[in-house]
Amino acid sequence: MNSSNNAGPVGMWFGYQVAAAAVLAVLCLLVVFTNTPNSRRLYGRLKQTIAQPREKDRPGTTSSTGQKAVAPPRSGLVTGYDGRRSTSKTITFAWTFVVAWMLITIGFVAARSGASFTDLLHNTPSLYLVLLGGPYAAAILAKVTVSSGVQAGRIQKPPATSTGPADIVSNDTGSTDLYDFQYTLFNLVALLIVIFLFGAHPGKGFPGIPDFLAILTGGSALAYTVNKGVTSNAPSISDVQPQTSRVGDSVRVTGTNLLPAAAKDAVPAVTVGGVQASGVTPPGSPDTIDFIVPAPTSGAWAPEVAQQVAVTTTAGVIATLNGALTIVGDQPLVSHVTPPRFKVGDKTTIFGSFLLAPGMSSGSSASATATVGGLTGQILDDNGTTICPVNFTGAYSNTAIEITAGPLSSGQSASTADTSATLKLSRAGKEATAPVTLAPAPVTTVPS
């Protein structure tokens, strides 16, 4: 008899709990649905259809570029503005849901049993203020900390590449975060304990909870919040190589946090001396970026001074390194010629830098001609008179070109002694020179 009498209230209580959960679930779904871009567009279309049936097929709003306007990102009940699941919002929502569920269930019990709703709540432990207020405080402090960090450039928050439940215990890169994990775990344990205790005796109001449980969740909330305050993923540039390059050359930037977690097709922006670079390519490491040295916007060659390199990450945070890169224009530079003494028809090699015109590939083979990529060469005597042209005869690169001297120019006769001369390379009005010695034929020894 007692068993059947107890079964009735227990069965009703279970029904009240299910009903309360269903009411809350419907309310949450309505809030989530009405807060999504798709639902807002659907509501707008329905409203437009009712008001103007003949224009129901009118295209949607477009931007000035002709593309469909994209709504700005919005945060949700459990997501931040970056689209990721928020740990603090999720825990706050969970406690809010459970407390509201218990209140509605107690209301059902009071309405059907004749008990006073006030009496059922009279003995509610004050520790519930800690369980509910702690997550709210953590959520607010975390939001303030992250927002101020983003504004100051200390924290990067690019839009999420994907989202899921794992975000709750992970950082922005997808790795499990210890502080997020412990905060979630301790609150999940506390939630389950409260749910089980209340589910067994909903007619007794809010169940009693030990002080230790509130201290545990409060301590984890404190650790979670402090971690938000000390976390930083600000970008920085430590090195640029090579430090001297020409327009069109590929340069690599090395630093830290240059590529925060973002969509695969999202790439940072790079400027050199304020000029936008092209060909920005992440080579695979989160700390390196390759780019192509840009030409000045005016079309003139950049001044050959060390300029600032700036990287704007996909999160909009800028890292700079002053005096990082010197852009050398179309100026060939010759360091030495080996061997420096040769006769007409002999091969020798020019060593230097930027010997090729911008855009030319290294490792190709030049034909026997007086020009290569717009570069011409000649050998002049001490009076500046041309003795013979320079032919580019072998494999060439930006640092080495193989040449031969000759034949002698018209009016020049073979000398019987060494002739001090100057090797001159010219391209687009820019010149590079190096001293050489033109020997008579035959040459018996060739000093190194």
Question: How is this structure best described in words?
Answer:
- The termini are far apart.
- With 448 residues, the chain is of the alpha+beta class.
- The strands form 3 sheets. Strands 10, 11, 12, 13, 14, 15, 16, 17, 18 and 19 form a 10-stranded mixed beta sheet that branches. Strands 2-9-8-4-5 form a 5-stranded mixed beta sheet, with no helix packed on it. A 4-stranded antiparallel beta sheet has the order 1-3-7-6, with no helix packed on it.
- The chain folds into 3 domains: 71-230, no CATH class; 236-328, Immunoglobulins (Immunoglobulin-like, Sandwich), CATH 2.60.40; 333-438, Sandwich (Immunoglobulin-like).
- The protein has helices at 2-34, 37-51, 87-113, 117-122, 127-152, 178-200, 211-230; strands at residues 236-241, 244-246, 250-256, 269-272, 275-276, 278-281, 288-292, 306-312, 318-328, 333-338, 341-342, 347-353, 364-365, 371-372, 375-380, 386-396, 400-405, 419-427, 430-438.
- α1 (2-34) crosses α3 (87-113), α3 runs antiparallel to α5 (127-152) and α3 runs parallel beside α6.
- A hairpin with a 3-residue loop joins β16 and β17.
- The chain is built from 7 helices and 19 strands.
